[in-house]
Design brief:
Blueprint: E1 4-7, E2 14-16, H1 18-25, H2 29-32, H3 35-45, H4 51-61, H5 68-76, E3 79-82, H6 86-95, E4 99-104, H7 108-117, E5 124-129, H8 130-133, H9 140-150, E6 155-158, H10 161-169, E7 174-176, H11 180-186
Parallel strand pairs: 1-4, 1-6, 4-5, 6-7
Antiparallel strand pairs: 2-3
Helix pairs in contact: 1-5, 3-4, 6-11
Length: about 190
């Protein structure tokens, strides 16, 4: 039996706090959610622009108010701590023979920060990230990229219903994530 678990990161492994980015920039929420800003972040998260290009464009959009280091620091404030109990749930599942693969819409900048600060990433043995795939969930391409590398997972946990629905369309055993206890129970 396939013992692979596709695991989203934001809202599943860690808490996400976009409001911290808005506060850090000292900008109105309308700027952070403006189409131009969202498009720029989507380009970053699909690997269409590099982190350096994104920083240069964001610097220009904020009238050079921040250095690249400051922009990265503010951007990474979005990433919160591990969800309470998640490290233990993953550790127990690994002990029962499950293999975890990250499957996430994210940027290289966020992953660099996440992999240095997360308390259980050493238990995860692979990944499919949007910035490497060139596509973001729920686009079919990123699911196909996962299947090409790891096959269809035995379980897929994500907190966003549209991503779950895309997995279900491909025949994945996709489960909307609610808590580490839920994951622990399903992976017994």
């Amino acid at each position: 039996m396939n013992r692979i678990v596709a695991l989203d990161i934001g809202g599943v492994c860690i808490s996400i706090h976009p409001e911290r980015v808005v506060q850090g920039f000292g900008l109105l929420r309308t700027f952070f959610h403006a189409k131009e800003t969202l498009d720029l972040c989507n380009q970053l998260e699909t690997g269409k622009i590099t982190t350096a290009e994104w920083l240069a464009l964001l610097q220009k959009m904020t009238n050079n108010k921040f250095s690249p280091v400051e922009l990265l620091t503010i951007w990474n404030r979005m990433l919160g701590d591990s969800l309470p109990g998640m490290a233990d749930a993953v550790r127990r599942a690994v002990g029962r023979g499950w293999r975890f693969i990250y499957f996430s819409n994210t940027s290289e900048a966020h992953m660099d920060h996440f992999l240095k600060t997360n308390d259980f990433c050493h238990l995860v043995t692979g990944a499919v990230f949007s910035y490497e795939s060139g596509s973001m969930k729920p686009d079919a391409k990123i699911y196909a990229d996962f299947e090409a590398q790891y096959g269809k997972p035995a379980f897929y946990f994500d907190d966003r219903q549209e991503n779950i629905d895309a997995g279900l369309k491909r025949g994945w055993n996709a489960v909307r994530f609610h808590s580490p206890d839920q994951l622990d129970e399903l992976l017994r």
